[in-house]
Amino acid sequence: MIDLVGAQVSNAWWYVTVAYAVILGGMAAFAGWLGFRLRRAHRELDQLS
Amino acid sequence: MTIVRNRWLEIATVAIIGVSLFRSMTVVADVTQGDVQRIMYVHVPSAWLAFLAFMVTMVGSAAWLRTKDQRWDRLAASSAEIGVVFTGLAIVAGMIWAKPVWGQFWTWEPRLVTTALLFFIYLGYLALRRAVIDPVQRARRAAIMGIVAAVQIPIVYYSVNWWRSLHQPSSARSIDTPLRITLLLGVVAFTFAYAVLLRRRLELARLEEELDAKRFEQSQSVAGADITVPSLASHPHD
Amino acid sequence: MTFWRQVYEVARKDLLVESRTAEVALMTAPFGAAALILIPLAIGTDAPLLSQLGPGLYWIVVLLFGMLVILRKSAVDGQAQRDLVRLLGIEPAAAFAGATVATSALVLFFEVALGPILIALYNPELRGWPWLFVILPLVATGMGLLGTIASGVTTSIGTRTSLTPLLIVPLSLPLLMGATQALEGLRLGRGIVPWLILLFAVDLALAVSGVLAARPLEEAVT
Questions:
Q1: Chain B contact for C74, CB < 8 A?
Q2: What is the 3-state secondary structure (H, E, C) of chain B?
Q3: CB 3.0 to 4.6 Å from B138: which of A46, B132, B209, C138, for a disulfide?
Q4: Which chain A residues are Cβ-neighbours of B103 within 8 angstroms?
Q5: Could you report the per-residue pLDDT of B60-78, keeping only the tens digit for each?
């Protein structure tokens, strides 16, 4: 019965957009952060050798 | 062409995520939950990845204990870091989905509770790794904790499941084929994403080990440094 | 020395150390009791509410404050003590089992010490209370096993007083579920056996993991 609430949610697409933005954005942000750490590690390694 | 060859996995991942996203937005909406149900196509794959990543951590831990090969420890650690990210994302998406459908952010559903506990287990695992300096000790202690946790997680899930079934009837619903295909596509897309992230994280782990080794090497003063030729990089009396 | 004699000696050593300081009896148990007294002041002193929530709150206090019982050993056991145990030729599995027996005994003591406080303040309905003679030891054993493993991997780590509880608490959920649902089941006249089987399964899984991890754990401390 309570599941029927969802069918009547008027701003459903707002929730969907936020959820997708969080997930895909989160993945992209993590990938970006990894890239930053990789570049920093390469830089430090070049400085030491 | 070299770029394509080197980055084929990234390109394929972006492509499949694009296809999955398109499919998720255009597939027919669920009868009972409406469009809000589309959140499932990112929430479920995230949770799936969270558990997959932990299984990889467990395999890496067991393999390290057997072989003592540092590559397995790098795999375990890298997968754990990615896993904690996916676990966090899965929980947040689950909360965004729960609010419009059930009127509250948290539903005490067994899989959600187990995912939340998995998050804390990951945090503990990563905190343990951060606290140990020696790489071999770190690998050994983390491997032990990884395996103990992996053995307990199914028990955690079943205990929450039993508890839940006593307090609430199971609301398991079968899903129609078009939705099932969309979900499967999402799972495949996220698995590709995991592979990309894992590969980069493994590279980072290898570089960090190399850095630590180099730093250690340079911090050791050479015996008789005063009379040996000083290296160009540093002077013993700096 | 036979294996079981070694287990006995290690457990006896730990309990002897504890008997000298009486940390669990004189400090941890009163701390747990204080918590049980503070809770109604925060959530309300409505008698039916406390009667219903009492058992659950008791187990939460046992679980969280039981961490202090578990941490006690890693605080007391220095490198010298660990080296001595090894030099005496005690097998890693026996050292693990002995430490677990001692910790479990102390957790059981803690559980029993808090029992009268629970009954006095919360007046819970303890139908089928003889089953507590099974439930309390099973939970104590599970916490002892988890605690010994977690203490083993966090030895000599400066942040272990926070890290060890963080490692233990999520994994101890089945113990909490088993204990609370067993009592709930008794109260409502439902079955208790599945929950006892769960507690036993958790203890068995942890015991096997712990014994197999005993040797690597010992190597992890050198």
A1: no
A2: CHHHHHCHHHHHHHHHHHHHHHHHHHCCCECCCEHHHHHHHHHHHHHHHHHHHHHHHHHHHHHHHHHCCHHHHHHHHHHHHHHHHHHHHHHHHHHHHHHHHHCCCCCCCHHHHHHHHHHHHHHHHHHHHHHCCCHHHHHHHHHHHHHHHHHHHHHHHHHHHHHHHHHCCCCCCCCCHHHHHHHHHHHHHHHHHHHHHHHHHHHHHHHHHHHHHHHHHHHCCCCCCCCCCCCCCCCCCC
A3: B132
A4: 2, 5
A5: 999 999 999 999 999 999 9
Question: What is the distance between the alpha carbons of residues B151 and B55, in angstroms, rounded to a whole number?
Answer: 10
Residue entry with tokens 């299984």: B55
C170/B156 Cβ within 8 A: yes
Measure in Å the smallest separation between the Cα of C144 and chain B Cα atoms. Answer: 14
Residue C124 DSSP class: -
Q: What is the pLDDT of residue A6?
A: 47
Res C47 pLDDT > 60:
yes
Q: How far is B143 from chain C (nearest CA, A)?
A: 10
CA distance B45 to chain C (A): 23
Which range is least confidently modeled, A4-13, B149-158, C32-41, C107-116?
A4-13
User: CB-CB: which of A12, A19, A23 is closest to B34?
Assistant: A12
Name the residue of chain C whose CA is nearest to B136's CA: C220
Q: Is B95 on the interface with A (CB under 8 A)?
A: no
Q: What type of residue is C65?
A: F
DSSP-assigned letter for residue C130: G
Q: Decide: B82 and B197 in contact? Cβ < 8 Å.
A: yes
Q: Which two tokens stand for residue C24?
A: 């669990």
Do the chains contact at C174 and B155, CB–CB below 8 Å?
yes
Q: What is the pLDDT of residue B232?
A: 63
DSSP label at C151? H
This model of the complex carries an ipTM of: 0.89
Q: Are B207 and A45 in contact (CB under 8 A)?
A: yes
Give A1-49 pLDDT, tens digit per residue: 444 454 556 688 889 999 999 999 999 999 999 999 999 999 999 988 7
The minimal CB distance from B35 to the residues A13, A42, A44 is found for A13
Neighboring chains of A (3 or more beta-carbon pairs < 8 A):
B
Which chains are within 8 Å of B by 3+ CB pairs? A, C
Does any CB of chain A come closer than 8 Å to the CB of residue B56? no
Does C38 have pLDDT greater than 60? Answer: yes
A·B CB contacts under 8 A: 110
- Gap from B204 CA to chain C (nearest CA, Å): 25
What pLDDT band is residue B28 in, cutting at 50, 70 and 90? confident
Of B148, B155, B160, the CB nearest to C201: B155
Q: Taking residues C71-97, report their average pLDDT.
A: 84
